[in-house]
């Protein structure tokens, strides 16, 4: 007997594949926390302890958060608000708040936001954690939480030297100590170091520690509206020369939004050759960047459309949830993809679908988990049921998962959002913002019938 049977779902397309979901419905068989079979939908499926009738929902691997700062979540306004809205005042506020950190404070706040992530369908999270703290209070708490959360989600930790490696007292020693205490990746922040030379040196130190401890490398790189900030080329060159290649991620890279076309072209070549991943954080950088501009005011985002066209892997991250750098947020990757589509002008049907992949497959590549990621036999049973026609529909209507399955168990459920319309002179009707033609197309493709999400039995 199966532990879980999902009947009548449609597989979401993989990155770079077809834009449309698979036409025919499938049954997904789950045993012992693993997908053991994907078969054409059938009335003769094996018995299961729990049965979910997907009713044509899209079945997708879980969302992946490639970039967040969990140590600072839910601290917005403590001890004061970031009134200027700049990255720099955010760092100053955080430095004050950092002195108040305790283990319990970190555990309480991060546990709350991890519950939000799981409810939103995120089962892989990469979190930066500030290690420019001689006590490494947040790091130890997050290492503890990484273990506690393991039954539901996977957490990667990046040793992030928020106040610098070369420009902070004992910055390099703290980075190495963080590596010893068990992080998954090493970080850096070269544009924040006092001089360009310190910035280059900080990248060399970070790459050296990552190599020596066998860790990934994820750098806050060029998060500044300064067209002279050019550490991405240094990071990409280090990725090539050290052999770290696609184990390296350049996060933010907002200065790229200010580079001239000739330099941008040259940079994309080395980024592609190096294999590095990029992470764009549209919510937060739309808010933080351009703060020193009059008008015209820059968007302050990296060149997502051009990088994708060049063949570079790019993902979207949330970055902050209610902290000194960003006062809003619900840890929701669908909102990130939705805003990211606007902010980066990825608006053709195929491009909107690509925005969905930037919070799923492409983000999984950033985390280095692509081999273990997906809905297929032999892979851990982590997946979502989305009451949507296709990935672009998820992004347009901000469709949240009806069901989140982690390790073969349902860990979150949600009723589809439906408004009740009482048009004068007409019978009340439900409005779910599905365009009538989309619904007809989806039905033709074997897609979801009108009338909402999956039904659980068992
Ligand atoms: Fe960040």
Structure description:
There is one protein chain. By secondary structure, the chain is α/β, with parallel strands linked by helices. The chain has two domains: 2-61 and 374-457, Urease, subunit C, domain 1, CATH 2.30.40.10; 63-372, TIM Barrel. It has helices spanning 87-98, 103-119, 137-148, 171-180, 196-213, 231-242, 261-274, 282-288, 304-310, 333-343, 349-357, 361-367, 391-397, 436-444; strands spanning 2-11, 26-31, 34-40, 48-53, 58-60, 63-68, 122-130, 154-160, 185-186, 216-221, 248-252, 277-280, 314-316, 383-386, 403-406, 409-413, 419-421, 429-431, 455-457. Strands 1, 2, 3, 4, 5, 14, 15, 16 and 19 form a nine-stranded mixed β-sheet that branches. Helix 5 (196-213) runs parallel beside helix 6 (231-242), helix 10 packs across helix 11 (349-357) and helix 11 packs across helix 13. It is globular. The two termini are 13 Å apart. The structure holds fe (ii) ion. The site of fe (ii) ion has 6 residues, from loops.
């Amino acid at each position: 007997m199966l532990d879980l049977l999902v009947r009548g779902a449609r597989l979401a397309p993989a990155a770079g594949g077809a834009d449309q979901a698979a036409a025919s419905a499938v049954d997904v068989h789950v045993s012992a926390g693993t997908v053991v079979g994907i078969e054409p939908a059938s009335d003769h499926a094996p018995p299961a302890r729990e049965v979910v009738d997907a009713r044509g929902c899209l079945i997708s691997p879980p969302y992946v958060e490639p970039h967040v700062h969990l140590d600072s979540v839910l601290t917005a306004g403590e001890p004061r608000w970031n009134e200027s809205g700049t990255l720099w005042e955010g760092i100053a506020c955080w430095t004050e708040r950092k002195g108040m950190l305790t283990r319990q404070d970190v555990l309480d706040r991060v546990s709350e936001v991890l519950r939000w992530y799981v409810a939103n369908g995120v089962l892989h999270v990469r979190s930066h954690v500030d290690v420019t703290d001689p006590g490494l209070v947040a790091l130890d708490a997050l290492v503890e939480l990484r273990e506690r959360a393991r039954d539901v989600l996977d957490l990667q930790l990046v040793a992030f030297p928020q106040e610098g490696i070369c420009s902070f007292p004992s910055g390099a020693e703290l980075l190495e100590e963080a590596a010893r205490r068990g992080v998954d990746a090493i970080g850096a922040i070269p544009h924040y170091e006092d001089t360009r030379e310190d910035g280059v040196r900080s990248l060399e130190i970070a790459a050296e520690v990552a190599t020596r401890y066998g860790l990934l490398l994820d750098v806050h790189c060029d998060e500044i509206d300064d067209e002279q900030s050019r550490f991405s080329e240094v990071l990409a060159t280090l990725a090539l020369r050290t052999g770290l290649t696609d184990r390296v991620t350049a996060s933010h890279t907002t200065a790229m939004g200010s580079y001239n076309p000739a330099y941008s072209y040259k940079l994309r070549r080395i980024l592609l050759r190096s294999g590095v991943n990029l992470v764009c954080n549209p919510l937060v950088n739309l808010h933080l960047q351009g703060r020193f501009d009059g008008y015209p005011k820059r968007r302050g985002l990296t060149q997502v459309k051009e990088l994708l066209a060049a063949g570079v892997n790019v993902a979207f991250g949330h970055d902050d949830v209610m902290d000194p750098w960003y006062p809003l947020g619900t840890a929701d990757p669908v909102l990130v993809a939705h805003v990211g589509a606007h902010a980066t002008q990825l608006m053709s049907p195929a491009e909107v679908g690509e925005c969905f992949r930037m919070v799923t497959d492409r983000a999984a590549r950033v985390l280095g988990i692509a081999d273990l990621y997906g809905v297929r036999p032999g892979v851990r049973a982590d997946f979502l049921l989305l009451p949507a026609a296709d990935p672009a529909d998820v992004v347009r209507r901000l469709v949240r998962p009806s069901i989140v399955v982690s390790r073969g168990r349902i860990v979150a459920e949600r009723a589809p959002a439906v408004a009740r319309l009482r048009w004068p002179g007409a019978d009340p009707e439900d409005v779910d913002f599905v365009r009538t033609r989309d619904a007809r197309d989806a039905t033709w493709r074997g897609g979801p019938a009108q009338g909402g999400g999956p039904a659980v039995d068992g």
